[in-house]
């Protein structure tokens, strides 16, 4: 970690929405609150976010990529 944090605001238009889920750098999906503080590391950082509804169905993910340089 570089000590850098990105604050990410999430929004949705999913019917019967229940929660947000995120995964970083291709890891496992985890429930999260919004806004989300995303710790960044040097190099390519990838955040996928999606909604999940009260029926357990996941929405289509949205991807955010941030490149953090060494200088």
Mean pLDDT: 93
Q: Compute the separation of the termini in Å.
A: 14 Å
What's the SSE pattern?
EEEEEE
Residue share in helices? Answer: under 10%
How many individual helices?
Answer: 0
Q: What's the arrangement of strands in the largest beta sheet? A: 3-2-5-6
Q: Main beta sheet: strand number and arrangement?
A: 4 strands, antiparallel
Structural class: mainly beta
Share of β-strand residues: over 45%
Net shape? elongated
Count of beta strands: 6
Ranges with pLDDT <50 over ≥5 residues? none
Describe this structure as you would to a colleague:
With 71 residues, this protein is mainly β. The protein has strands spanning 4-8, 17-24, 30-32, 36-40, 43-53, 62-68. The strands form 2 sheets. A 4-stranded antiparallel β-sheet has the order 3-2-5-6, with no helix packed on it. Strands 1-4 form a two-stranded antiparallel ribbon.
SSE diagram, text form:
Layout: E1 4-8, E2 17-24, E3 30-32, E4 36-40, E5 43-53, E6 62-68
Antiparallel strand pairs: 1-4, 2-3, 2-5, 5-6
Name its key features.
4-stranded antiparallel beta sheet; two-stranded antiparallel ribbon; mainly beta; single chain; elongated; 71 residues
Brief overview:
With 71 residues, the chain is mainly beta. It contains no helices and six strands.
